[in-house]
Amino acid sequence: MDAKRAQDIIESNDKIQVQYNGQSIWIAGVNPSKNTANIKTNIFDQETREVSLNELKEVH
């Protein structure tokens, strides 16, 4: 996934399913300069994990 698409997903009012290693996640933020995203496995989690945008898959 590229940084622009990840940011579009964050800003979207639609529910767009994204997976990391086969698990549904929420994107909490994007760092285009590092090509990474901060993700949560639960929308209510306070902790995020930084992962490569290349590892995120949009589910259609």
Outline the structure in words:
There is one protein chain. The protein is of the alpha+beta class and about 60 residues long. Helix content is about 15%, strand content about 40%. Strands 4-3-2-1-5 form a five-stranded antiparallel sheet. A hairpin with a 4-residue loop joins β2 (about 25-30) and β3. The protein is globular and about 25 Å long.
What fraction, in percent, of the residue positions are helical?
Answer: 10-25%
Q: How far from one another are the termini?
A: 13 Å
Major sheet description: 5 strands, antiparallel
- The parts where pLDDT drops under 50 for at least 5 residues are none
**Extended strand count:** 5
Order of helices and strands: HEEEEE
Give the strand order of the largest sheet, numbering strands 1, 2, ... along the chain. Answer: 4-3-2-1-5
Radius of gyration of CA atoms, rounded to a whole number = 10 Å
Count the DSSP helices: 1
Global mean pLDDT: 96
Topology:
Blueprint: H1 3-11, E1 18-20, E2 23-31, E3 36-40, E4 49-52, E5 56-58
Antiparallel strand pairs: 1-2, 1-5, 2-3, 3-4
Give a brief description.
The protein has one helix spanning 3-11, and strands at 18-20, 23-31, 36-40, 49-52, 56-58. The chain has 60 residues and is α+β, with helices and mostly antiparallel strands. A five-stranded antiparallel beta sheet has the order 4-3-2-1-5.
Keywords:
single chain, 1 helix, five-stranded antiparallel sheet, 60 residues, alpha+beta
